[in-house]
Amino acid sequence: MKSMCLAAVLAAMMGSAAFAETIGVSMQSFDNNFQTLLREGISARASEVNGVSVQVEDAQTDISKQLNQVNNFIAAGVDAIVMTLTDTSAAAGVSEAAAKAGIPLVFLNLEPENIAKLPEKQAYVGSKETDAGRLAGEAACSLLKEKGKAADAQVYILMGDLAHQASRDRTSSFKEALSAGECKGVTIADEQSAAWTRTNAMDMTTNWITAGQPIDVVFANNDEMAIGAVQALKAAGVSMDDVVVIGIDATQDGLAAMAAGELDATVFQNAKGQSASAVDAAVALVRGDEVEKQVWVPFELVTPKNMAEYASKN
């Protein structure tokens, strides 16, 4: 894995204090559980590398605020920038500004639209979102077959922010996985954005329940929305044995819902691996070392059978 290569480069420098770098970090939102895991991972990794400090800012899902943060980092002369994009379509402008200033830039977690055209001293660290959707789709189909509903299930999808490539890729690959096998007869009854949040997902699921149509599967683009769906279903008196609910991230809250029998599957997204690799990439670029343009950290399926293995990973 490329992140392991980056770690090896940094390990050779750990014992030296000859370098002193400041990394400006702009996070999409401190309120998002997974973004919080990434933020904590960045700080933890930076504390392990001598001479590296981080300045972390909250963009509060506001692209204007995030662009101001980037401009402030550039004006302050930080040595590198790491960011999780509020709007992935803004990536090209951010890349151009950082390149013009000669400051290394690492996009983290949310894939930039210009990923194929990143300038020198820039990289992306994340996980292949299509893999997450595929794993979720395969798990959903397997569970539907166990219930005898593979041919005619009604499937509902809670998408994240539509400005994020992750939402689009997770959703499309989930549907492709269903249609590619024994579950090709299922119906995608509806798909709506709940913007990654538990509250929005609860409201959206409540609307679906109120409409009176059967709900056999709810696939959420993250665990937060999956939990919101569970809360709505339980509030309406729906037995969780009758509905397959699948999320992504394997957060602590998601695993707790799985332990309670409410979440059938999730897909582990390695926050520690992503954040450590992002810091490693940023420091390596500052120090003149070669870094892959795209550093991928694998997704992994989590079910009640193996959930104990992931209890402390996120």
Describe it for me?
The protein is α/β, with parallel strands linked by helices and 314 residues long. The protein has 10 helices and 12 strands. Strand 6, helix 6 (165-179) and strand 7 form a beta-alpha-beta unit. The protein is elongated.
From the spread of the alpha carbons, the general shape counts as elongated
Spans of 5+ residues with little confidence (pLDDT < 50)? 12-17
What share of residues are in beta strands?
A: 15-25%
Strand order of the largest sheet: 2-1-3-4-5-11
Terminal residue distance:
19 Å
Number of strands: 12
Percent range for helical residues? 40-55%
Quaternary structure state of the chains depicted:
single chain
- The DSSP helix count reads 10
- Rg measurement, Å: 20 Å
Helix/strand/pairing category: alpha/beta
Order of helices and strands: HEHEHEHEEHEHEHEHEHEHEE
Tell me, rounded to a whole number, the average pLDDT: 93
Biggest sheet features: 6 strands, parallel
Short description:
The protein is of the alpha/beta class and 314 residues long. Helices cover 43% and strands 18% of the residues. It has a 6-stranded parallel sheet, sandwiched between helices. A 4-stranded parallel sheet has the order 7-6-8-9, sandwiched between helices. It has a two-stranded antiparallel sheet with strand order 10-12.
Characteristic terms for this protein:
four-stranded parallel beta sheet, six-stranded parallel beta sheet, 314 residues, alpha/beta
Write the layout of secondary structure elements.
Layout: H1 2-11, E1 21-27, H2 33-48, E2 52-58, H3 63-76, E3 80-83, H4 91-101, E4 105-108, E5 122-126, H5 129-147, E6 154-159, H6 165-179, E7 187-193, H7 198-210, E8 217-220, H8 223-235, E9 244-246, H9 252-259, E10 266-268, H10 271-286, E11 294-296, E12 300-302
Parallel strand pairs: 1-2, 1-3, 3-4, 4-5, 5-11, 6-7, 6-8, 8-9
Antiparallel strand pairs: 10-12
Helix pairs in contact: 1-10, 2-10, 3-4, 5-6, 7-8
